[in-house]
Structure formats: C-alpha cells, structure tokens
Design brief:
Blueprint: H1 13-22, H2 29-36, H3 40-52, E1 56-59, E2 62-65, H4 67-79, E3 84-89, E4 92-99, H5 107-116, E5 121-128, E6 131-133, H6 141-144, H7 146-152, E7 162-167, H8 171-186, H9 192-196
Antiparallel strand pairs: 1-2, 3-4, 4-7, 5-6, 5-7
Helix pairs in contact: 1-8, 2-3, 5-8
Pfam families: DUF4443 (PF14544), PH0730-like_N (PF22167)
InterPro entries: DUF4443, GAD-like_sf, PH0730-like_N, WH-like_DNA-bd_sf, WH_DNA-bd_sf
Keywords: ATP-binding, Ligase, Nucleotide-binding, Protein biosynthesis
C-alpha cells in the first residue's frame, strides 16, 4: 500500500501548545495557520482534535478555548509561561519563555534542543536573588546585554525560574523552538488531554 507523506496533516506537540496559547482569544483558521506556519489542512485537523477533546469552541468570529481549555492553559502556565516576543536578536524575531521549578539541566543540552528545532540561536538564563544570570558562571545578563535584560523585566519572574530565549529567521520557528525546550524538560507533567492531541 503506498501513500504520500505530504497528504497527511502534520503537527507536533509544540504546535498544539502554541495553539492553546493563541486561542485564549478567538482566532480564525487562516490566522492560526500564518502564526504557526502550518498548512491549513494541518490546522483544520488540529482544531478538530482540540474540539473533539472539548478544549475549544467555535463561533462565527473564530475558535477559542472552552472552560475546559482555559483550565488546561492554567495547568500549562504552572509549568511554563507563554513565549513573549522580545526585541530582535541578530536581526531575527526572538521569544522568551519562563520554565518554573526546572529539573536539573545543562545549558548546552537545552541550546542544542532549540537549535535542533529550527532556532538559529538560544540563550539559557536563570533568575536568582533578583537577578537574571548565566547559570554557568553567574554573570548578570544586564552586564552583557542590557537591552534584553530590560525587556525581560516585564516578565513575571520568580526565584529559580529558568529563562529560555530563542531566535530564528521565521517568527513561528523562534516561538516553537522556545516551547520545544520547555517540553523537553516538562513534557511528562503536561495535562493528559494536551498529549492526546498528537497521539
């Protein structure tokens, strides 16, 4: 039996989580497709699965999270934050994301994961004693990259938070590579319904 891989809608867990963040507000299929850089067929399947799990509702103005979906979003937010766009790095779109109560990690492994997932570059930082620092040597970010440090101060930082910054030529790749790093550390704690979307 032959089949064409391209005929199958393809999306990953990163797309599912990004879609949940996006659907806090009503969005049309075309807008989701553009923001996630996913084909409309894949977006249609993704929305169908989210709807089947009763995580979203749809109206004329678009698709949005249901009560159950909002509950799952809260559970995700207790693990890691929604990626926030920050100022460009190396002229590329960049996103920052906070991972709460991170397990032990090696910065190099997390950077490698981000780059494996289409990021052009990644920075791994921690928030300790009121400062954003590089975990390897305790260097404060504000000493080397004051503009980025200032940008990050708008985030709701908590002691011990891990900060992941990723950048890529495509906005969707920068966004999803940050989520990918969060999933690399926290996938096992995700709500079951979210994992079911890709199973």
């Amino acid at each position: 039996m032959s089949w064409k891989r391209g005929a199958y809608p393809e999306f990953g867990l990163e797309d599912v989580v990004a879609a949940v963040f996006l659907l806090k507000d009503a969005k049309g299929r075309k807008q989701i497709s553009e923001e996630l850089n996913l084909g409309e067929g894949s977006v249609r399947t993704l929305l169908k699965k989210l709807s089947h799990l009763e995580l979203i509702e749809s109206k004329q103005k678009g698709h949005y999270l249901s009560e159950k979906g909002l509950k799952k979003l809260k559970e995700i937010n207790s693990l890691f934050s929604e990626p926030k766009e920050i100022e460009k790095i190396e002229g590329m779109p960049a996103y920052a994301l906070l991972i709460h109560n991170p397990p032990e990690f090696k910065s190099i492994d997390l950077r490698d994961e981000a780059i494996r997932f289409f990021a052009k570059g990644a920075m791994i930082l921690v928030y300790e004693k009121g400062q954003i620092i590089f975990p390897e040597d305790g260097r404060p970010l504000k000493d080397t990259l004051p503009e980025i440090a200032q940008d990050l101060e708008n985030l709701e930082l908590k002691e011990g938070d891990l900060i992941v910054i990723t950048w890529a030529p495509q906005k969707a790749h920068a966004l999803k590579s940050a989520i990918h790093v969060a999933l690399f550390l926290k996938k096992g704690e995700l709500p079951r319904d979210i994992l079911e979307v890709v199973e």
